What does this fold into?
Amino acid sequence: MIETILTLITARGGSKGVPRKNICPLAGKPLIAWTIEAARQSTLNSRIIVSTDDPEIADVSKEFGAEAPFLRPAEFATDSATSESVIEHTLSWLAQHDDFSPDLILLLQPTSPFRTSDDIDNAYKILQQENADALVSVTTNTRPVQWLRLINEEGFLADLGIGSRIDRRQDAELLYELNGGIYLIHTDVFLKERTLYPERTIPYVMPPERSLDIDNELDFLIADLVMRHNLHLGSAQKA
It folds into this structure.
């Protein structure tokens, strides 16, 4: 049986770190356009829906080929609103208005513009091959956790007390951090557990250069420079 897939792109209008972040131009395109295009270029036969509370973001999303069939209610667009609550609202709306209930949910965040259509396809294939409930993209952690410090009440640096001392990075245990690029989960599992991280979650490892996550103005500047560099390299290779 062919799976029905919902590709959900979440993009509220009230970004704090970078105002209007989701439609700010990144290397000549609105930030959200890079994620919409990656989703459209993948081989997955899915409905690509943008959940936003902002009419302008909805219009831009439609311009680049995504659906924006509703505006997200204010209670799901606050700083404290979770991705899980946005997914639940979207599933409820689609079931009620479109009689659409997907087998699989693919959550993509616009703040990960370097995630490619190949990443999406490969992540889906891995989830299909493995006996798992969900998949989340990660990248290697570049700094040993033993190097982290906190500032105590006296104002001094204090060790976290995690593991033995590490002086060389190459001696540290290989750890992974979530990069926000891809979340895949079977809908029945999500509805039962109400989390994107059920116990049986497998990783999809992405390289650092495709794991840049935009949270503030500096992130945006770096991402713009890297994207323009990538586009220039691509044009030079085709010449």
In short: The helical segments are 31-41, 55-63, 83-97, 117-129, 187-193, 217-238. The chain has one domain: 5-139+178-238.
